[in-house]
Amino acid sequence: MKRMLGAALAISALTFFGCSKKASKPKIGVAIYKFDDTFMSYVRNKIESSAKGKIDVTVQDSQFDQPKQNDQVDQFLTQGSTALAINLVDPPAVSVVIEKAKAKGIPVVFFNREPAAADMAKYDKAYYVGAKAQESGTMQGELVVDYWKAHPEADKNKDGKVQYVMLIGDPSNTDASYRTEFSIKAIEKAGIKTEKLADDTAMWDKIKGQEKTAAWLAKFGDQIEVILANNDDMALGAVEALKAAGYFKDGKSMPVVGVDATPPALDALEQGFLVGTVLNDAEKQGLATFDLAFALGTGAKEITTTAGPLAAADGAASPGGKYVWVPYVKVTKDNYKTFKK
Question: Is residue 333 part of a domain?
Answer without folding.
Answer: no
